[in-house]
Amino acid sequence: MKERDMVHPTDRELSRRSFLKGTVLAGAGVGAMGALAACAPSGAKDDLASTGVAADSVTWDKETDIVVVGFGGAGSAAAIEARKAGAEVVILEASSVGGGSTALNGGLIYLGGTPLQKEHGIEDSAENFLNYMMQMAGPSANVDALKLIAEQSEDIYNWCLEQGIDFSGEVLEAHLPDGEEGICLGYTGNELSREAQKVATPAPRGHVAQPEATGMGFFRPLKAAVEGSGAEVLYEAVATSLITDENGRVIGVCADYDGGSKNVKANKAVILAGGGFTSNEEKVRDHLPYKANPGWPVTNPNEDGSCIQMAQKIGADLKGMSETQIGFSVYTINDRACEGILVDENGLRFTAEDEYGAFIGKRIVQRGEHAYLIVGNNLKSIMDEAEQTPVAEGATIQELAAAISVDADSLAHTVATYNDMAEGGIDFQFGKEPKHVVALNEAPFYAYDASAENTYYMTQGGLRVDLDLHVIDSEGAVIPGLYAAGLCSNLIFGQYFGSGSSMLWCFFSGRAAGTNAAAE
Amino acid sequence: MKERDMVHPTDRELSRRSFLKGTVLAGAGVGAMGALAACAPSGAKDDLASTGVAADSVTWDKETDIVVVGFGGAGSAAAIEARKAGAEVVILEASSVGGGSTALNGGLIYLGGTPLQKEHGIEDSAENFLNYMMQMAGPSANVDALKLIAEQSEDIYNWCLEQGIDFSGEVLEAHLPDGEEGICLGYTGNELSREAQKVATPAPRGHVAQPEATGMGFFRPLKAAVEGSGAEVLYEAVATSLITDENGRVIGVCADYDGGSKNVKANKAVILAGGGFTSNEEKVRDHLPYKANPGWPVTNPNEDGSCIQMAQKIGADLKGMSETQIGFSVYTINDRACEGILVDENGLRFTAEDEYGAFIGKRIVQRGEHAYLIVGNNLKSIMDEAEQTPVAEGATIQELAAAISVDADSLAHTVATYNDMAEGGIDFQFGKEPKHVVALNEAPFYAYDASAENTYYMTQGGLRVDLDLHVIDSEGAVIPGLYAAGLCSNLIFGQYFGSGSSMLWCFFSGRAAGTNAAAE
């Protein structure tokens, strides 16, 4: 499973992380006043805070039009568009290489109604895409934002091509949980579910960045484009606080680089694009509202919520902090694994087994600690091939139930009902695709662990932004001079609608923030 | 249903609300700078913000030791304890009468291991109470906070008696969803559920404030105690912003009263106790992570999130903003209604029907828009007596299913399994109490609407506080001079464990904030 690897940074990254974290924590650990003092503009008197200061009272170490914090997908898009509009840009990047969580992504961007779909004869449109997103995202989602995203989907696709991102390959007419070499399009969300098909014609929308078919398929060309644009990138530069003037306008960033704390002036605006808070475990626990905790974070170590915290410090509002992609990858093992049934601690099914993994994962943690995939002997070899090891085995369903501490009568009734459904080939409970509704009647039976601890998570909540990507304060007003893009910002607040949605959000929000900041 | 009435303020309250909202919104509507200007300390130059100012540069209209914002349960507890410790106190209360959401509560406080339980021969203890809370609250809950609350449960009970709160009456050995006259104790949470009984001996913990058996059973004596304490209460006084000095310390509150904007100096501290954000629909939608939106807010109109917003404006962090009590009152109709089955849109059971309404409500909105209580003709008269009107009727389960757009095969299988369970008297799916597991086999069958729109909600998330009730900023540091108590604060972040939990939190947090603020 490719994603799991993301949480195991290489030794080199780890030591970088320790170094950087040391720096950041030293600032935070001494408390509010200590933090302010550490970020006091150089040369200013000791008790001068970095908020509410006259611009001419600060000793600036560097000056530009736009400071972008974070050199991942969103930061790249912002820098490219700001440069295109003629603004000077400095990017502050905590790592020594850039890439952020974009470089770790599965190589997918979720787009609907694109020329690529048309070329391959796939019926889709901005409207069809919007209908799908609206249903998946749920009732709290910002419809205006979804509309804009659907309308811009084609533009964003074309923009990707302009940056040199390559979507060549064949269409996969099946679930595509992660980018695959040679594939250009696949079903990476819940398009084929019974619920989705009520409102939108299913279309593969996961566009794969080749030839890597990983996040590097995006970041490699983006990095080249940023470098070619004339934007200046400072690596190993950790932003620590925002500097505001007497009117509350953001006028710069205090950052640690070149061995010291520096003040970087932004004559137009600051764009925060440093990612979510997936790697900040305390923050995650402060906001996740589930019955069980999800398993492992999928993140880059610098995605520690610091962009969110810096803006909160000057009054920014938060939105959708509980919105989290919680993934589960049963269906990724092999399509035929979906012939089994997923049951909770009570021995009950709770989902169509072929639904989008991020929806299944959320259902698991909402219901409790434990869940199991139950299969008959007919699927054992498939599971073996996928290197899956059962946690229990039973000659009968009752025996298997006892082995996993699930009520035997309950599981037996669940299986009996499922086998009744298999006879008609119709999953009348959850609408699993008929080809996967296969009787569970070949002993021995096996249980595979699908528990909460085996899910993975990525945060989606963050700074409240408006349609122009301005950061909004707690009273609903724009914080002048401040934009946010990518996973540190939240405009939509709705359930993650398909793998590649984050990349879509990064490019949508980054492009707009860059353009708008340049126009200040 | 008593709670439903809470959302229909009297005309008098409505006009108060319109008046007050008009004031508040006028400030917010003009944007950040406008809001700052409106709250500029009187006599100060126009462009001076109310943050980061020298105390002696402000013209103070009033001065005291401690300013408490909000005169509900938490504000009362804070004021009483601060006065007891010798501090001067001014309470700013938006309404003309006080009471907040405390006055609207069901007349319950949730406590474990109290002398009252002992008097009535009920076996419970701080430890047993803690075990229950830990399991119910879930894996993200702050265990240190729960421990403190369990330990202080007896103290809080005794404190209630000192304030003149009256818990006389008889024990009800059944679910007690709301205070009842003549009853002193009842099961107001999920104590009797299969899950809870694994970790804690069930005990009735909902203590009823008599003789009103409503929130006035708390607020009437508290109001008298506050008035008797020498605290000054300013009614129709709406706090609009916090005033901080050059070191970031909170030194006062800007408030609208007596026809103008006034600066009230707090020599020791400000305690925010103005309630959650239940009546702020935009904020609620910004944070609720469910598949369907819950129905109606249970709130007082001033519970608009303004305390949370004021503190955010000076950098306060948020915690558990998605934590919301989402109630459903099927089991409140009549215990026998639990003999029916609750099913979702897919025709599947999803809960023991006799569980705590706030857990059932959350499960409903997690699963989708629609849910139904299905009963046979044997229960029709019970439902009639409770003035419940079915949304559909069918001579067979299949006919009923069709009438509510639920798959007929699915519902028929669910009922068949349930009837199998009724034969053995054991709900092996969810562990409903055996006396409620009664076969559903007497036609005609009826469906009652248990959909998301019929749930009610109250927000629980708010300002991040520490065990001393200091408000914490985005970097984890204490904001000096600022405390929060009651529903605008969040320390625990866990599922609401029983009706009366909010009252417990208000008294626990209010008392501690008052004592700690007085010691500054």
From TrEMBL, chains A, B:
Pfam families for the chain: FAD_binding_2
InterPro entries documented for this protein: FAD-dep_OxRdtase_2_FAD-bd, FAD-oxidoreductase_2, FAD/NAD-bd_sf, Succ_DH/fumarate_Rdtase_cat_sf, TAT_signal, TAT_signal_bac_arc
Known cofactor(s): FAD
This protein's record includes keyword Ubl conjugation: no
Keywords, alphabetical: FAD, Flavoprotein, Oxidoreductase
Stretches assigned to the FAD-dependent oxidoreductase 2 FAD-binding domain: 65-501
GO molecular function: steroid dehydrogenase activity, acting on the CH-CH group of donors
GO BP of this protein: steroid metabolic process
Name this polypeptide is given: FAD-dependent oxidoreductase
